[in-house]
Design brief:
The chain is mostly helical and about 475 residues long. Helix content is about 65%, strand content about 0%. The protein has three domains: about 40 residues, no CATH class; about 180 residues, Heme oxygenase-like (Heme Oxygenase, Chain A, Up-down Bundle); about 210 residues, Ferritin. It starts with about 20 loop residues before the first helix and ends with a helix.
Length: about 475
């Protein structure tokens, strides 16, 4: 009997504590359940999981670091990828990994990890893997490393974590990982198809297979993604032992493009004007071509993300988001050219901006694209949209309206990013940027050498660089 004499003691099989239940209360509860008219779906989750809060946080911190490093890593390769579709998808994938890092960072912060501690986390073994992965010989090897090795392993780790963690107490982690996997599934499917396309186009499959095995072995030697697997022997030799990784500085395009960098003026590059300079058709085509040529903005913002890595997580995240937007703008321009009756590859691609920015210090390169390029777009886009609507040009009015909203956001985000890059004031930063870009434009032959470096106006640079 229980101590109060009202009910027998019923020891629960899951606890050592005594259960005191009143029979009349239990029967009344059962009767109320029988009389309740609604039969809602039964929640079949149960308490119990493999991880404590501390172990959960340890794993999430490692996952966060992998995601942060993959976003940075893809950013560093944006200049060096020649193929248009791969460069464009990489701009998207940079944000997918950065957003995964942001999601995991938020969950870690909820588990009593300070943001400062999370952002300061480093892992030399993971860094060694990332550096080796970045030493890919070309874009096909990059996709193998980022997606078929690291990405695939992260996807498996997230699914295992979802299965093993407590499905009731740790629901926020499960939800976070399921949201991340929504991006992972199409990203990894695309990467597999892209690698297959490279192989079908003549890339040696055995070379990619050897590289995949090499990186899988290296990942296994550091305990895998979660760090809990028994380490395997590392590869006998790493490429980074011979040559430390350094990002490229020159933009690359695939063989479908013709390119130019000696001017920012499409009419000059084309050899003769397609339309009278002030005609609406000329303004329209220039805007659409500029969007297609924002493939160079994927390169710019991706490179900035690599160049300022670990300085400020918010700046990294904003750069990743802007890179995704620029990939979308490139896609918009490409599709708008098709909708306008052009073969996009018949129109030469402008490399002026990337050629100048690639080797530059990130603060000045960022200032050019933010203070001159994006601000320059906002100066003219309102009147262009109004004119498009007057002309009943539904294609241009539609796409330009969305691009305008993006550029407004980029200008605002850019101010925080610039503050993370430099201590220079706006006036000094703008003056130095004008000087450096004018020097570059002179070296490219875009402007004449008899011009005073300090007399080229911001409007001239906006036109010549033409973001």
């Amino acid at each position: 009997m229980s101590s109060n004499g009202n009910s027998p003691s019923n020891p629960s099989p899951t606890t050592r504590y005594e259960v005191v239940s009143f029979p009349e209360s239990r029967e009344a509860a059962a009767e109320r359940r029988r009389a309740f008219p609604y039969r809602f779906p039964r929640d079949r989750r149960s308490l119990g999981g493999h991880f404590t809060v501390q172990e959960n946080a340890r794993r999430l911190l490692r996952f966060f670091y992998f995601e942060r490093r993959l976003a940075q890593a893809l950013g560093s390769w944006t200049l060096a990828i020649p193929e248009f579709e791969v460069k464009l998808e990489t701009g998207r994938h940079i944000f997918y990994h950065a957003d995964a890092a942001h999601t995991l960072r938020t969950r870690l912060n909820e588990q009593e990890q300070s943001l400062k501690t999370i952002d300061a986390f480093r892992d030399e073994a993971i860094d060694r893997f990332i550096d080796e992965m970045l030493s890919a010989a070309d874009a096909p090897e990059l996709l193998v490393g980022v997606h078929q090795v690291a990405g695939r392993a992260l996807s498996i780790a997230y699914r295992h974590h979802i299965d093993l963690t407590d499905s009731v107490t740790d629901t926020p982690t499960i939800r976070a990982m399921k949201r991340i996997l929504l991006d992972y599934e199409p990203m990894l499917d695309w990467a597999d198809a892209a690698v297959a396309a490279y192989i079908e186009g003549g890339v040696d499959e055995s070379r990619l297979t050897a590289w995949r095995w090499h990186l899988q072995q290296l990942l296994g030697s550091i305990g895998g993604i979660s760090g809990v697997n028994a380490p395997v022997a590392p590869p006998s030799h790493l490429r980074t032992a011979d040559k430390p990784y350094a990002r490229n500085t020159a933009p690359k395009r695939d063989s479908r493009f013709t390119t130019f960098h000696h001017t920012g003026d499409y009419d000059v590059a084309d050899g003769l004007p397609r339309f009278p300079k002030e005609a609406y058709e000329s303004l329209r085509l220039r805007f659409i071509r500029t969007q297609r040529d924002e493939v160079d903005a994927i390169e710019a913002f991706g490179t900035f993300l690599w160049d300022i890595r670990f300085i400020d997580f918010k700046a990294e995240y904003d750069l990743a988001r802007i890179t995704w937007d620029e990939a979308r703008h490139t896609e918009i321009g490409h599709r708008a050219l098709l909708a306008s009756g052009y073969d996009p590859y018949e129109l030469p691609n402008r490399l002026t901006g990337s050629t100048c920015r690639g080797p530059m210090e990130p603060a000045f390169a960022m200032a050019e694209i933010n203070l001159f390029g994006e601000v320059g777009v906002l100066k003219t886009i309102n009147s262009l949209i109004d004119k498009a609507r007057e002309e009943n040009d539904t294609v241009l009015a539609h796409v330009a309206d969305f691009i305008r909203s993006d550029e407004r956001t980029h200008v605002k985000k850019g101010q925080h990013i610039l503050r993370c890059m430099t201590d220079l004031g706006n006036q000094e930063l703008e003056l130095k940027t004008r000087e450096l870009f004018t020097e570059c434009l002179i070296s490219l032959g875009a402007i004449t050498t008899d011009m005073d470096l300090f007399t080229v106006s911001r409007e001239d640079l906006e036109h010549l660089v033409g973001e």
